[in-house]
Amino acid sequence: MKSTILMLLALVSLSSNALPERIVLLRHAEKMIGPDPELTDQGHSRAQRLATLLTPYKPTALFSTNYNRTKQTLAPLSKATSVPVEMYDPRNLARFAQQLRSYTGTLVVAGHSNTTPELVKHLSGQAVSISEKEFHKVFIVSWLNDGKASVQELNSN
């Protein structure tokens, strides 16, 4: 009986400390001009490359802001993996970062040049940057055994 209780306590402790395997964060692909622009042809090509790059990670959840450009960036990955895209509000990234920590597996988040670096910082404590003209940067946040975050930068060109 005592060993069963200890085992249950250990399992509860493990599950409460569980973090996603990794969170992939990226800016939307190249966009047209306008208030809620769609992707350019170059942007659609990048979205396809991102799907090819990220499908092997077997994403368990996809997140996008509610803008055409971010939704279109994740559409090919959603189609390739049969994982639906969920919307998030970029106005409260601290709360969204906490929500992301409750998931397991690999998560992919499409954002913007001003929100993606901020979200990386909330998740990892590390500063990254994306200029208004950069669309190729992909950041992968993962956690080491000691719970410390690691950030890896990939290039989607």
Structure characterization notes:
By secondary structure, the chain is of the alpha/beta class. Mean pLDDT is 91; it is low at 1-16. Strand 2, helix 3 (68-81) and strand 3 (85-87) form a beta-alpha-beta unit. Strands 3-2-4-1-5-6 form a 6-stranded mixed sheet, sandwiched between helices. The protein is built from 5 helices and 6 strands; from the N terminus they run H-E-H-E-H-E-H-E-H-E-E. The N and C termini lie far apart (57 Å). The chain has one domain: 3-Layer(aba) Sandwich (Rossmann fold), CATH 3.40.50. Helices cover 38% and strands 22% of the residues.
Which key phrases capture this entry?
6 strands, globular, 157 residues, alpha/beta, disordered N terminus, Rossmann fold
The share of residues in extended strands comes to: 15-25%
Strand arrangement, major sheet:
3-2-4-1-5-6
Low-pLDDT parts are 1-16
Cα end-to-end separation: 57 Å
What would you give as the CATH superfamily?
Answer: Phosphoglycerate mutase-like
CATH architecture: 3-Layer(aba) Sandwich
Provide a count of the helices: 5
The total of beta strands comes to 6
- Give the overall shape, derived from the CA principal axes: globular
Rg from Cα: 17 Å
The ordered string of helix (H) and strand (E) elements is HEHEHEHEHEE
Mean pLDDT: 91
Q: Structural class given helices, strands, pairing?
A: alpha/beta
At the fold tier of CATH, the topology name is Rossmann fold
The total domain count is 1
- Describe the biggest sheet? 6 strands, mixed
Percent of residues in helices comes to 25-40%
CATH class: Alpha Beta
